[in-house]
Give the backbone structure.
Amino acid sequence: MLFGVPLVDIAFGPNLQTGERYGRARGFIAIGDQAKGCIAVGGAAYGFIAIGGSAVGVVALGGASFGVLALGGLALGAVALGGFAAGIIARGGLSFASSTSHIAGFICALPYLLRQF
């Protein structure tokens, strides 16, 4: 334990004693169904470095990733790389890169783009 937080926490599956339907891991290194930590790995990962199906963090890698550096199928962030990528710097199959002055134009065009699918 460091500052009241475990160094490594691993939690998968339901916990019948607490009634949790899925494992919630919280620690500096968190691995589980839902992981929150400096380094988080799991189905839903939230942390400085997040890796998972849904990843939110400064560096995010996953199916749907949101962060300063986002890499994944759906990547939204300052630097985004993925199948659908949007950010100030974006690269991918369908990517939207813009300076901060063009973000309003992207937001206005988003409903039109979503109707195309």
About this structure: The chain has a mean pLDDT of 84. DSSP finds one helix and four strands in the chain.
